[in-house]
Amino acid sequence: MQQDIRIPPLGLEGRLEVPEAAEGVVLFAHGSGSSRFSPRNNFVGAGLREFGLGTFLFDLLTAAEGEDRKKVFDIQLLSERLVAATNWLQQDKNIKRLKFGYFGASTGAAAALCAAARSDVEIGAVVSRGGRPDLAGESLGKVRAPTLLIVGGQDFPVIEMNQTALAELKCEKRLEIVPGATHLFEEPGTLEQVVDLARTWFIRHLRTSEGAVSLM
Predict the structure, then answer these.
(1) In what helix (H) or strand (E) does residue 57 lie, and over which residues does it extend?
(2) How far is CA 107 from CA 2, 51, 110, in A?
(3) Is the distance from CB of 160 to CB of 178 less than 8 angstroms?
(4) CA distance 151 to 162
(5) Which residues does residue 24 pair with via DSSP β-bridges, in sequence order?
(6) pLDDT digits over 98-141, tens only?
(7) Orientation angle between helical segments 107-118 and 75-89, nearest 10 degrees
(8) 29 contacts 105 by C-beta, under 8 angstroms
(9) CB < 8 Å & 24+ apart, contacts of 73-78
(10) In the predicted structure, residue 213 carries a pLDDT above the cut 50
């Protein structure tokens, strides 16, 4: 299933893609200055779909809001939008049968963790890529979803920020450092490692006891 979506009331645009037999659905929270067209997140999304995971890549801000630097870095606002998108997807009788996960990049990782801490919908897993989970602040201690933090081995300041956040998390957690990778994982083969790590984490935690759910 492939569907272009506009989430009311702001008309936030996104693309939902769910394999015929899905294990779960992963919502993406992009970093500052990025959007549903992020080539890296789309690459990760394609890798997840290959193994039976649905994806929803959408804009957390309108075009006008994206010009406002305060809103771009407003973690609270971004997390509210992610929760709203989660609730909106829950209205679909087929999608609501799936387990939900969050994938956050850069500042989007903080938004994903804040959303996981406050969402009324059970979030099965969270993955952060090159993220700033430390920006989630007090929400870190409230996250119950198993959380995987992925950081580039050459992204030294962010490694320390992720180590700090890891210590604050009270859920099942893990920090994976990809050797040789910088912040954007532009080095050959490093983004593929992100896909492998994220896919394994999501499949482990989103797969239902009954197995895949058919959308037919």
Answers:
(1) strand 53-58
(2) 27, 27, 5
(3) no
(4) 8
(5) 53
(6) 999 999 999 999 999 999 999 999 999 999 999 999 999 999 99
(7) 60
(8) yes
(9) 73/32, 73/107, 75/107, 75/110, 75/111, 75/114, 75/135, 75/136, 76/114, 78/29, 78/107, 78/108, 78/110, 78/111, 78/114
(10) no
Q: What are φ and ψ of residue 195, in 5° steps?
A: -60, -45
Rounded to two decimals, the pTM is 0.93
Q: Which residue has the tokens 């200055």?
A: 33
Write out pLDDT tens, residues 27-60. 999 877 678 888 999 999 999 999 999 999 999 9
Strands 123-129 and 53-58, by their bridges, are unpaired
Angle formed at CA 133 by CA 83 and CA 71, multiple of 5 degrees? 55
Contact 44, 191 (CB under 8 A): yes
Within a 10 A sphere around the Cβ of 31, how many other Cβ atoms? 24
pLDDT recorded at residue 33: 66
* pLDDT at 172 > cutoff 50: yes
- DSSP class of 212: -
Residue pointed to by tokens 């087929």: 94
